[in-house]
Amino acid sequence: VVRAGAMLPMTAPTVVYDVLLAIDDGRIVYAGEASAVDDEYVGRETVTESRGVVMPGFVDTHSHVGAHIFGTVCDDENIITALYEIWFPMEAQYTSEITYAGACLGYWDALRGGVTTLGNDEFYPAAVAEAADKLGVRSLVANRIIGYAKGSPPAYNSDARAYDLTYDRSEFDRGLEENVAFIEAWRGHRTVIPCL
């Protein structure tokens, strides 16, 4: 049971005050004015925050939580420099362990900001899924399927104003096969939705 000072139900442009939120087996069974249900809902645990606001979690449909370890390293760069001179070369050095650590940090930061569901693709989807499971966040997770070797990311030639990319069909096929295996391994999970 959660008792809070206010609730933003997002079903109407209203605010409900002095609220109670009852959860049974992971499902919300009541959300509304506390006075309307008196003592009908008694929880094993009650969180009371008279100055708190209850609201639905936000959804981030496009994230890269495994890259959260980059932090603000790209903030002062334009998108071309950030991607081709910083992000892609750093990402080429990733391991599943680094991805897991970054994903834990990224999911934690998202949850802290009220985001409870994320869409995500990374090179090591199982590591991302394990992080989502550990933190209890809902997440759609897919493998990053690309047409170049991870260790040879595309580069931007600023003089020619062109991208240098060596397409490798076998990398695309390998990524697709890995993704199918990932989907089979995580199918039916309670919070992680493996996808393509």
Walk me through what this model shows.
The structure is a single chain. The chain has 196 residues and is α/β, with parallel strands linked by helices. Helix content is 30%, strand content 30%. The protein is built from four helices and ten strands; from the N terminus they run E-E-E-E-E-H-H-E-H-E-E-E-H-E. The protein has helices spanning 79-91, 96-112, 125-135, 169-186, and strands spanning 2-7, 16-24, 27-33, 47-54, 58-63, 115-122, 138-143, 155-157, 162-164, 192-194. Helix 3 (125-135) links the parallel strand 6 (115-122) and strand 7. Helix 2 (96-112) runs parallel beside helix 3. The longest helix is centred in the last third of the chain and has 18 residues, at 169-186. The model has no long low-confidence stretch (mean pLDDT 90).
